[in-house]
Amino acid sequence: MMKNQFEEIVGCDAVNDHINKPIPEKLWHYTSYAAFQGIITSKKIWATEYRFLNDREEFLHAKNLAQELVNEETEFAGEQFPAREILRQGVDAAFSIGYLHEERLRIMVASFSEEGDQLGQWRGYAGNSAGVSIGFDLRSTRPPSNIGTAVTFAPCIYQEDSKRALLKEIFAHYRNELQEWWDRTMNEAAKKQSQDSGIALQRVKAAISEHKDELRQIADRRHRSLQFDLLRIAPLLKSESFSEEKEWRLVLPMETIRLPTNHPLEFRPIRDAVVPYVAYPLRSPNQEGPIFCNDLILGPGSHPSADVGVNMFLQREGIRVLARQSKVPYRPK
To answer: Which of the pair, 152 or 191, is modelled with greater confidence?
Structure first.
């Protein structure tokens, strides 16, 4: 098997902590009755290509915020380490030629929520409330961290302060090893040469030239780490206007995906496009029987007798759950 390029990258502690937050024992997925039937029978959920989500701008949000924070960095640090420029080069490379470049980005997303009966989500994601909200136990869905995958299953981040703080942690993780090498190299060069400030620039150039291969190796390693962290966290940064949804996202970056089983790219037609998606299993590889569906709410726009057919269907599929009606006092026009 080809070695995954991210397998030996530890990543930023702050990112690791966020994407490994404990998964709640119940998360909800709003959908239509047709999709509900497909999820239960196939035991899979469709993760859709990000360009076909409701708010495509959120992926540009991470890029814009990262570039804004670069401008707030100190220009020089330590032994005249060009902190801001080094960081700018790394961030620009990640978004312009790396996996986060818009034309290269291939990310599939499946969405869940901590809220199971919310009007905005009924209207937005469940056929204007004529659908269902499925409660899942997804605690075994997250892939193991030791396979070096960039796949994440974690809560979205809405608060501006939290997003900025997390990106700054990523930047520090990227920069620190480079600056440590730089400061050490400059100090060694200073011991060999005059301390006269008039030749400081020449001393820097000479030291970098002498150790250029070592610098290239460190820089390449840090660039991979920066891309890894940004790839895992950027899809989780959402506008604060969506905060009431309390969304958890399963994010599948297709170019870097490495999972125990293969998930081929598939396509489905809609009114005005053909949508790429991945059918992702909701059971662990060794699990048999039905998926872990532990609750079900019928949308406020459902047929008056919808629970009859739904409960018969669930019983046939071996799922011991009784559907309940939404408490939202809403009827679509």
So the answer is: 152
d(CA 311, CA 4): 44
Say whether 12 sits in a helix, a strand or coil: coil
- AA identity, residue 29: H
Whether residue 150 contacts residue 232, with contact meaning beta carbons closer than 8 Å, is answered with yes
Q: Which long-range contacts (CB under 8 A, 24 or more apart) does 306-315 make?
A: 306/33, 310/132, 313/37, 313/40, 314/40
Report residue 214's pLDDT band, with 50, 70 and 90 as the boundaries. Answer: confident
pLDDT in tens, 283-312: 776 777 778 899 999 999 999 999 999 999
Q: Residues of 75-99 as b/e, b for ≥16 C-beta within 10 angstroms?
A: eebebebbbbebbbebbeebbeebb
Cα atoms in the 13 Å half-sphere on the side-chain side of 214 = 12
3-state SS class at 177: helix
Angle at 96 between CA 92 and CA 102, to 5 degrees: 130
Question: Cα(248)–Cα(45) distance, rounded to whole angstroms?
Answer: 14
Q: Which are the contacts of 161, defined by CB distance < 8 A and separation ≥ 6?
A: none
Query: How far apart, in Å, are the Cα atoms of 218 and each of 81, 176, 225, 238?
Result: 15, 11, 11, 32
Residue 274 DSSP one-character state: E
pTM score, whole prediction:
0.87
How many alpha carbons lie under 13 Å from residue 296 in its C-beta half-sphere? Answer: 26
